[in-house]
Amino acid sequence: MSKIKFGIAGVGTIGSMHLDNIVRCLDKAEVTAVADIRLNLVKELAEKYKIKRVYSDYKELAEDNSIDAVIIALPNYLHYDSIKAFIESEKHIFCEKPMAITLEQANEIVKIVRESGLKFQVGYQRRFDKAYVRAKKFIIEGKIGLPLLARSNTRDPEPPVGWEKYPQKSGGPFLTTCTHDFDSLRWLIGAEVRKVYAVGKFLVNEDLKNLGFYDNVMVLLEFENGVIAEVDASVNCSYGYDVRTEIFGTKGAIRIEIDKATGILEFGNNGVVHDYPKWFIDRFLDAYINEIREFVKAIISDKEPPVTVEDGRAAVEIAVAAQISASKKVPIRLPL
After folding, report:
1. Is 310 exposed, middle or buried (CB count within 10 Å of its CB: 0-12, 13-18, 19+)?
2. Contact call for residues 135 and 248 (beta carbons, < 8 A)
């Protein structure tokens, strides 16, 4: 095939970003159909990007036999049902994280994906960020020696809104936010998590407390190879989007952090001031492009995508264990 024909299910912030990235940056792919219940938005994007077909329901998109693959950027609680619909219609799937909000759903997705033989990739874009890629290379080459300790944080500049603030729809902070940290640590360390201890707190946002959505969390992970890792997340980061990861070993350490959005430093009466990444797209735009590019390569070359359905399940399992641990205030052993 000359180009992979994509449909996009859900054209909110993430879906519309993927749409723009494919149009601007990928010569082996094109978007030929989009679906969203907000039909006015769909029509607006279709006119802007000259997309041929628009739908108000992902089920209609699943019935479109002219597309080869789909990007699922729907709300988290719709991932399971939409994955089943696109598998049944024999579409390759790129699904935004998390691929499910329960472990039972994740287990079923693994089963149907493997039975289908279709390509399936989960949207953990940090694996495609140049800093994370380089860190992985350093670890493989033994430059930090034997990994001993690790940490990762994701601190958002504002609390969730809409469906995301309802734990029963989003999965709560362990699934919406921390699965990025769980996946990147599992990938960097190269081992499975065997014990999880989590604490969730309602410290700032009264409305989130009323909904049962922790605004600040911390998770301790124990890996099968002995590495101990700490993950924390917050929705109260006043200075911007703060994502950092560190792996400490017997010969040294690697720290991944972007402390300036640009290379500008302002010198004045208030001292030296620099800007900071405001939101996740600012920090990971290139990684988002790279992950779709690699998914397209996997389809064309008939190879396993770099973030597999099993990887997606592993992140869900860790998040579910963290939910149980925070609720019961006890460590949880994996596998569940």
Report:
1. middle
2. no
Rounded to whole angstroms, the Cα distance separating 22 from 31 reads 7
Please state the rounded mean pLDDT for residues 165-185: 98
Q: Structure pTM?
A: 0.95
Q: Determine contact, residues 26/5, Cβ cutoff 8 Å.
A: no
Give the closest residue to 62 by CA, choosing from 45, 42, 87.
Answer: 87
Read off the amino acid at residue 182. F
Closest C-alpha among 94, 147, 131, 177 to residue 253: 147
Rounded distance between C-alpha atoms, residue 300 and residue 189, angstroms: 29
Tokens 């693959």 belong to residue: 69
How confident is the prediction for the chain on average, in pLDDT? 96
Homologous superfamily, domain 127-285+315-333: Dihydrodipicolinate Reductase; domain 2 (3.30.360.10)
- The 10s digit of each residue's pLDDT in 81-126 is 999 999 999 999 999 999 999 999 999 999 999 999 999 999 999 9
- For the record, the structure tokens of 61 come out as 């998109």
**What pLDDT is attached to residue 267?**
83
In the chain, where does the domain assigned CATH 3.40.50.720 lie?
A: 4-124
Instruction: With a cut of 80, say whether residue 1 has pLDDT above it.
Output: no
